[in-house]
Amino acid sequence: MIACLGRIVQDTDADSIPDDDVSTLSESLDLQGTIESGGITDVAGKDFGGLYSVKPLALIKPSGTEDIARVVNAASRTSHLTVAARGNGHSINGQAMADGGFVIDMRSTEENHFKPLTIDGSHYIDVSGGALWEDVLKRCVSMFRLAPRSWTDYLSLTVGGTLSNAGVSGQAFRFGPQTSNVTELEVVTGKGEITVCSETQNSELFFGALGGLGQLGIITRARVKLQPAPDMVRWIRVVYTEFEEFTRDAEFLVTQEEGESFDYVEGFVFSNSDDPINGWPSVPLDPDHEFNPAYIPQTAGSVLYCLEVALHYRNSDRPSTVDTAVSRLLERLGFIQRLKFELNVSYVEFLLRVKQVEEHAKANGNWDRPHPWLNIFISKSSIVDFDRTVFRKMLKDGVGGPMLIYPLLRSKWDSRTSVVLPEGEIFYIVALLRFVPKGPTVEKLVAQNHEIIKWCNKEGLDFKLYLPHYQSKEDWKRHFGNQWTRFVERKTSFDPMAILAPGQNFFKRTHIIKP
């Protein structure tokens, strides 16, 4: 098998592997799945970000965990081959690419695990790392009336993909990110070993893989915490003119005990204009809702702020009971009273709310255009300065998509994982979700992202990139700070030849051949 693999990688390039070589390679690896090459691999050479493009040697569609382990083992017996796990292709900066290496299509394993468990009275679901959260939601609710506790805003992402980063949405203030809501993983390490890990078993791999950006292993199965699923959601948006009032109320809501706040808290910044994408029309929840700018005080600045909240309830709850609960929470907030928008939707419909955005973007061609997104965690101590310069000046006309901002609680995150956070109990996630229209060049928007990061560094803001991507090891060292040594030790333990996730530009592939 080694001789066959060596011949293929030496005699051919990533653009084209002859069919007979692909067949021979497949037989040599003894895969139950399939190997594809040539033009078929084009999809594995790009991602949702649309900023990078490379040519993998081959696209592997494994039938299960054993296939993935065989591919990693085969790469380890060469001097240069790398392996990248690709979920649903929604990375932004080429993180799931392998130039001249193997890309593993994790979606081909999505049906391998789906098993409910009850342990000490608590409910869990074992799911494949290649399963989409959207499908996990639908199946758990329809079959068991249960659902995971923590989500992302967009659910057409794989379980393994989000757990390799963090997984954040409006429930994270209460339950923590998705990485705080799993109790067991099955991982294929960079040594090609299949390892089951948890807090008490192979714990260094468990915590290292969570938020580990795919550097330590490929997550093939996860045990996810479940809770009873509500039937309905009261979905609400309210508007603020002052950033300090917006953040005060958002922080108040996320620091209340369960039952004393909403079940979901997010927010976003929008332009104080009639721009259909970036301005007032982006706020109403329903086409029948009207945003009346006459209610905006004359003292308002270039941008406004929207607090988005949601309250879960059951079909058996009386409407008056829900109204009372919502009113009790809203009366403590300082928003513009005439700029409030409410909608009752099913729980599943609420969690799939971004699906409509996807369908609309695909219909108008925006979905397949580049997405130079920027995601940042910023400490509470720095967020006012960030608003004053970035939101009110640099981005006052919008970014062609949502500018999310909402507070999170550090105590809900496990410091043993590989995720890196700013200091302080309260910090904010800022997500600039650009949809590039016809007009401004991608290069200009990428340059603006760099300008924002450069300004943050210059002013000494306490921040960390979320979904990070750097071009050098020195940048990664600065990102991890005092956690860098721990991360390198874990990398040395579980992927000593730096085979995995080469698109992150962490470590150079070593030339040590595995015996």
What gross morphology would you assign? globular
Binned strand content? 15-25%
> What count of structural domains?
3
CATH class of the largest domain: Alpha Beta
In what order do the strands lie side by side in the largest sheet? Answer: 14-11-13-12-16-17-15-18
Distance between the termini: 13 Å
The CATH superfamily title of the largest domain: FAD-linked oxidases, C-terminal domain
Question: How many strands, which pairing sense, and closed or not: the largest β-sheet?
Answer: 8 strands, antiparallel
* Strand segment count: 18
Helix fraction, binned, reads 25-40%
What's the alpha carbon Rg, rounded to whole Å?
23 Å
CATH topology of the largest domain: Vanillyl-alcohol Oxidase, Chain A, domain 3
Return the structural class: alpha+beta
Question: Ranges with pLDDT <50 over ≥5 residues?
Answer: 1-20
Task: Indicate the mean pLDDT.
Answer: 91
Features:
FAD binding; eight-stranded antiparallel β-sheet; disordered N terminus; 515 residues; cytokinin dehydrogenase activity; 18 strands; Vanillyl-alcohol Oxidase, Chain A, domain 3; six-stranded antiparallel β-sheet; Uridine Diphospho-n-acetylenolpyruvylglucosamine Reductase, domain 3; alpha+beta; FAD; FAD-bd_PCMH_sub1; 3 domains; Uridine Diphospho-n-acetylenolpyruvylglucosamine Reductase, domain 2
Written description of the protein model:
The protein has 3 domains: 22-106 and 493-504, Uridine Diphospho-n-acetylenolpyruvylglucosamine Reductase, domain 2, CATH 3.30.43; 114-228, Uridine Diphospho-n-acetylenolpyruvylglucosamine Reductase, domain 3 (2-Layer Sandwich), CATH 3.30.465.10; 232-465, FAD-linked oxidases, C-terminal domain (Vanillyl-alcohol Oxidase, Chain A, domain 3). The protein is globular, with a radius of gyration of 23 Å. Strands 14-11-13-12-16-17-15-18 form an 8-stranded antiparallel β-sheet. Strands 5, 6, 7, 8, 9 and 10 form a 6-stranded antiparallel β-sheet that branches. It has helices spanning 2-11, 19-29, 65-76, 133-144, 159-163, 172-175, 203-209, 243-254, 319-330, 347-351, 353-363, 380-394, 442-458, 473-480, 484-494, and strands spanning 34-36, 58-61, 83-86, 102-105, 114-119, 122-128, 146-148, 182-189, 194-198, 217-228, 232-240, 264-271, 303-313, 340-346, 374-379, 403-409, 426-432, 463-465. It contains 15 helices and 18 strands. With 515 residues, it is α+β, with helices and mostly antiparallel strands. The longest helix is centred in the C-terminal third of the chain and has 17 residues, at 442-458.
